[in-house]
Amino acid sequence: MNEWKGHGMIRIADEVVAVIARIATLETEGIVGMSGGIAEGIAKRVSGKSVQKGVQVTIDEDRAYIDLRVSVSFGQRIDRICKEAQRNVKDMVENMTGIEVQVVNVRVESVDVSQAKQSSVKLEAVYL
User: Which family does it belong to (predicted)?
Assistant: First the structure.
């Protein structure tokens, strides 16, 4: 975000928006973690920037486009968890920064079964 405010320029870095988005996502019930990928690790090494695990933010013309990679808990409706995460991220980013959030994409990369009740079927984490 770049905005002229009479006394000077206000600029909010993509990384700041990513931190806000990560916190909002992790505060969502049913989200148990964020998932970073190989490309994220390479980007961090090459750019030297602080990369928020599981969050990618692009700001264009004072509009934010946010991609999340998450792990959800077993036994809950995944679509409901993701919709709630989208609402939380949009609300928190817009309220804290004034930047309009255009898109919050959520990719579920794993299901955490560590809290699942014991059953006759052995459960293992599912990774895509």
Answer: Belongs to the asp23 family.
